[in-house]
């Protein structure tokens, strides 16, 4: 839905219905200029100190034309136009309209937008890391671009601007490195973005879903991040980044499944450690997906596979539990989800308390009341823990969600059921495309060259090439120099 | 029809390896040892070598046939039309498509039967087979790239699963069982080679998927590697079974590979045969997917019908076949029928087409 | 091009269909198959006895209702055949009985004499039975042996005992698979641990040798050690050697412990009667010795080494001649002959078995730790 004024008169009369719209006629100028603005959108200080005082000081000089105010006002970016759509959008973005007289359709647009209400702190809160910069983005587009440009001092970082949203008229930027990113990708993103019809773009994360290749998939097809280093890294590899006005999140793509297990911290640690932690993350995801389902399968069907030393412990722990394993697991998994959801919606202090109360007290009580087995408590809490090791929140939500159907399948057909789940998952991720690129690169389609930075984070000597699946215009990121040549021991 | 198939649908040559490997390494790798060792005893490995060699020759022939076609039409449908005329060609195409459908069905049914016998003796078959059919539909309707991707995953899982298990089995083997070498007559070896050939099919999928391989010139290498590594897998499975059980015990066993794996113990699991049989679902899914994709695609070329409709029809056929093929005897009959057709297909049809190709080439030159 | 809404509607209807399908499968399949681990009874050890003409089977089940303490429940039934014993046990139990965790099958001596082939066959073809199950023969009856373990609170007491003795003691390594291998394999015969009841507790007394599936004879624990040396590359195991031929006092013995042994077999000549050379290389340590034996010089040690080797050779030769006299072949000499000759058949070998000559050569080394004394 979109309401556009036909002419300036209509625009003003429409705006005057709002209480925060102000129209003044300046008595101290000659001729008296008419100024209109939204009080809530402009910075009062700017108006008083720069606009009003500047005009007051020059009141002896007579203005000949509207263009003359450019000479008096110490404000950059004054635009003079009679195009109604420009006037409307600028007015609503915090510009003041200056008119020669009431009937003149041409007016000057003076930028006085206020930056109030924008978070000043820009520490990364949701994608925390111990090492490396903690610079994150805020809800202001200009600040975000400033942060980005301050580390990428090249003119070929291009930010294409689009306007999306019939009501919000949000500015959306498509960022890429010219001469690196494949033009096809840029064109694809631009095409999909301009095809969007939406009223308000609250966040880039909405755009992410609107341009996704498959809207039925539980998997995120683009990486959404608030970290500067992550966005820059994506741009360097030849991906495209998107950000909308008012969102602290960049969305980068095309991305692959394995991108979601990459944390910027991997690159700040020696490569051996970085690779190890990445492997831990992948293992964590697999564990989190299948651990409780395995418990259900084994205790319900495959008692043969339990080693004899574990068997007695398992039977003891389940001895007085009145439910079948699947119900037991479902109840516990749902409890963990309750705890997570409640913790996420509450202030962090209360959230912590909740975690303690929920985790420890509920868990102990459940075991003592013989409602669950204590082995299961361990498994469920471990797999909840393991689901949080993925650096991207969207992916960890996906993984927690996928556990439930797999648990049900395990209850139907034991281990065969679990592998039915694996089969559906594999077919699904093989079918998925992100911006038209296969989601499981470099595993399938197999690209051995891209393995240097996928499961493992190899040495920086090796990872100097951009991933080939992105078809970048130039392949080489940097040229590693052999600083210290390896020599045999005790040899010069 | 366009000159080349869009890159969107094709896969790089290395994936030919995965597809062929997965098509050849069938569920019979868990059970073929008894039949092959029946005649040749401890010399059964010789017959595997013979079949291995003959498969290489067949692949070489197939590549000779295919590389002499127009790259877009290098599949059995077009070849049969070109060589045998409109009517006879259509009949043969129909037969070959039926063969691929039968292959897929037998794989699917035998896998379910194995689960039924070995894991859930009292399970009702219909719910699980319906879910399986939905899964197959989901996989095949993703197109060739999805099927090829599944083959890759299946191969990947086989590779990370089997070699460690076989290494763990080494302490339980009795090397003496392979001696004395060559204690059987050539006739016995040939008989067991025939048995082996019945279990070593699947290379013929090449005739259906060839146009969908990029840079076809480079792909022959991968086809041969696929044959080689698949045969190696069979060889290892055979030798392990012989060394683990000895011939006399082997004669009493239906699933030697699984039984041998059942000996292994990991700290958290024992009885790994359950794991192996469950994982085999993905393998079965991949090879059924390849067979059905070829069938659907060829039916499209033959009758100009929509592939997704073909797929639905074939899966309905699966359900109908399952209604009729119920008890193990019928399954074995179906399997024997299928494997015998497979042997004729490989060792008679392919050489004939090869000769025709060579003759035509000579004439067109002269 | 189709409109987006139509595609979405179609996709949603597909997911709906799949959902309903899965749900209905759940409803259909949620009966029958489940074997929830604490809602069933797991048979851990079983025994077969011959009671006149009838077969009595005894099983041990763990009862885990008391916290942190396993009580053993014994069920025992009689039947005309060993085939339906399990079904009969089921009629005595409050929860269904399952064999997937069974670890030990014990045969009474009478039952073993009558033949254990049908039970072995059944164990072999039951896919739920673990290959790691152990078989053993009881010198008296299996039921008595099993019920003597009730106050150990360990359902697998006998199995653990056998396993421990294979690892650290004189028993050769055996499990269901190796026993079946010996049983089905041509040119080799089955042998199983032989247990007796001594003063109310179970004791490993040696090895029971089988001819086909029938108990032939039993040998003592020292011969078990010899068999261990002859059949596998072993570790551990010990033997007591008398230092004098006769009138040995309690002090005139020497206890040695095998550290590792390695066995190789060679065919010396085929005709007229086959001659086989079994070479055993072993390292031993002397654990206990009388005061008067001293290891001061190299000669002392090598003299003792020769003595020990000669003693073991003699034990082994005696053991093989015992086997020949009973027509049993636990070492698998027949199988070895098969691997060395073309057109081997079992019958001919059986005929020539008594005339077969097996030479034993033992290369024994005493590993004497000079630091320990």
Automatic annotation (TrEMBL), chain B:
The chain crosses the membrane at residues 12-32, 44-66, 87-108, 114-138, 150-173, 225-245, 274-296, 308-325, 337-359. Pfam families: Spore_permease. Keywords: Germination, Membrane, Transmembrane, Transmembrane helix, Transport. GO terms for biological process: spore germination. The keyword ATP-binding does not apply. It is a multi-pass membrane protein. It comes from the Bacteria. It is found in: Membrane. Gene3D superfamilies: Amino acid/polyamine transporter I (1.20.1740.10). GO terms for cellular component: membrane. InterPro entries: Spore_GerAB. NCBIfam families: 2A0309. Belongs to the amino acid-polyamine-organocation (APC) superfamily. Spore germination protein (SGP) (TC 2.A.3.9) family. This is Uncharacterized protein. It comes from Paenibacillus montanisoli. The lineage of its organism: Bacteria, Bacillati, Bacillota, Bacilli, Bacillales.
Automatic annotation (TrEMBL), chain C:
This is Ger(X)C family spore germination protein. InterPro entries: GerAC_N (IPR057336), Spore_GerAC-like (IPR008844), Spore_GerAC-like_C (IPR046953), Spore_GerAC_C_sf (IPR038501). The lineage of its organism: Bacteria, Bacillati, Bacillota, Bacilli, Bacillales. One of its GO terms (biological process) is spore germination. Keywords: Germination, Lipoprotein, Membrane, Palmitate, Signal, Transmembrane, Transmembrane helix. It comes from the Bacteria. Residues 205-369 form the Spore germination GerAC-like C-terminal domain. Residues 34-195 form the Spore germination protein N-terminal domain. It comes from Paenibacillus montanisoli. Belongs to the GerABKC lipoprotein family. It is found in: Membrane. It is a lipid-anchor. GO terms for cellular component: membrane.
